[in-house]
Amino acid sequence: TKSRPLTARLEYLAETCQINEADFITFDAIRQAAQCAGRVIRGKTDYGLIIFADARFNRVDKRNKLPTWIGQHMTEAHLNLSTDMGVMISRRFLKLMAQPVSDEDQMGVALSQADLKNPQRVQEAISKTIVS
After folding, report:
1. Nearest CA-CA partner of 78 in 41, 42, 47, 53
2. Which of 15, 56, 81, 126 has CA 20 to 30 A from 5's CA?
3. How far is 32 from 54, CA to CA, in rounded Å?
4. pTM of this prediction?
5. Coil, helix or strand at residue 112
6. What's the rounded Cα separation, in Å, for the pair 89 and 132?
7. Torsion sign (Cα): 65, 70, 75, 78
């Protein structure tokens, strides 16, 4: 059942912005999922797993609505996994991330604003840190 505030919000969006109910509900659900995912990683040295177990995230139209920093890591190889495969990938990732990191190893990992505007530099940084 819909709460009164949600019903009022849906009516307002339909009347003033021509946004239908299904689109808003989808947007709101994806926004909340992305917000939860963002709570996993807060600092430069944080790491964690974000598992989108809902099969709807296998659909391109849903994944494309996620923020880029999430969607870029949702490759075909990481979609629709069995539980065993998900556990294996998670275990490998956590073992790698749990290794001690020296200050020397962290040099050059942080990206400047200029680096962030260079897609090749961003991809290089990602490839150094992502486990496939």
Report:
1. 53
2. 56
3. 14
4. 0.62
5. coil
6. 8
7. negative
Structure tokens at 27: 């947007």
Mean pLDDT by 10 residues, the chain (132 residues): 87 92 90 89 80 89 88 87 92 89 65 76 71 50
Tokens of residue 14, six digits: 């339909």
First to last CA, the chain: 42
Q: What is the DSSP letter of 118?
A: -
- Can you read off the two tokens belonging to residue 49? 């797993």
What sign does the dihedral 99-103-109-110 (CA atoms) show?
positive
For every residue of 46-87, DSSP letters joined together read ---------GGGGSHHHHTTS-HHHHTT--GGGSS--HHHHH
